[in-house]
Amino acid sequence: MSVHYTKDHEWIRVDGDVGTVGISKHAAEQLGDVVFVELPDVGKSAAKGGEIAVVESVKAASEVYAPVAGEVTEVNTVLTDAPETVNADPEGDGWFYKLKIADAGELKELMDADAYAKHLESEG
Amino acid sequence: MTNADLKRTPLHGLHVELGARMVPFAGYDMPVQFEGVLAEHNWTRAKAGLFDVSHMGQARLRGDDVDAALETLVPADVRGLDAGRQVYSLLLNAAGGIRDDLMISKPDGDGLFLVVNAAVKEQDFAHISSALAGRAELEVIGDRALLALQGPAAAAVMAEAAAGSADLKFMDSTSLKVHGIDCLVSRSGYTGEDGFEISVPAGKAETLARAFLVHADVKPIGLGARDSLRLEAGLCLYGHDIDDATTPIEASLTWTIAKNRRDAPTFPGGAKIVSQITEGAAKKRVGLKLLDKAPAREGAEIHKGGVQIGVVTSGGFGPTVGGPIAMGYVDAAHRDLGTQVDVMVRGTARKAEIVRTPFAPHRYHRG
To answer: In this structure, are residues B88 and B62 in contact, taking their beta carbons and an 8 Å threshold?
Structure first.
């Protein structure tokens, strides 16, 4: 299993050809209290970088983008009733959806944890 | 705008020290949150929250006939406003639109004390000065901070800090020593809770804030919770729920048009406003309760039977309500309480109902 991050603060944990996707701890902290997550429909095909979900804090709505292309196979229905799980455990129980990765080659364009940490530093 | 261009309130250093997340707001570098919007919202509803609202504009208006002079700009009964009282009012334009909302008070014998919104304070003050030139003198107060202490514990906290504060009722206004500092205090606020707004000399503001924060029931609250609290209280945010193209009648603020000023309206837009009181306005501001969990934000269209009948002007999650709430304008035909509508959130029709505001009951101290 490997974990990759995007510049837009999504993570994808890869197990075979299935990726589990969520938003990073940093993103969850920046958003503040999550009160609603609009999840994609199972079966939806995601384009790399395409808008796939929406996460709402008390203050504002933010788009969540797909780290790689694929087809959504499962969504985290826990978030429907307990959106605060995103704040409690953003890179674990607060995952958003799973997708069947269309092209594993796209993962190479993402960052590993160290590179993402450096990216956060550079963003200030 | 970079941070260096932003103005700072006298409490800026304290906010940073307390770990606030700072954001630009109305030209100021302001705290949007300290420990988190939800926690701060809930704390204010349960205990007492301390808000820095020093970015708002404060001024004195003086003149031999200052009450009558100001009545040419606002629809309030300023002449009938008793000493020691405050009134919420509106600066109107010739078309009956709202230039700003403001507080007018008589805390002492020194003319009128005005508090206006930060984003439009320069234009408000220029307008008042020029419109009343020769009749009244406006002194803009740049050397005072403004704090708000809000919540069910505010009265007890304030009683320890200021003898005499317990005698104040909702919308009373007076000069008072608070923690030994000469302040102007009104029993009012923007949260729907009991509480106080305290105008304090800038040089003493941090001392006063720290003195309040020592109290176990007081925490600092940012602009994020200020917005969710005022939304639940059904209070308008200028530039969003009201603006220069909406009239007080459209905004469901008819109560701000003093009864004794309706027969011969001498405030700007008076004829139009009085005619709307009689004839009704084409659109009305209403409260909306979303029936599922997706918040509707400003700009979301309100539909009925597939046809647009209005638009959301403020919306979000109401922590005390426990779900999404909004305010917006709808065609008057659809304004009735209980009307079922659809609010369009990212292309999806979300069911909502027109409901009474406030969403969370006001808990003012009316004595």
So the answer is: no
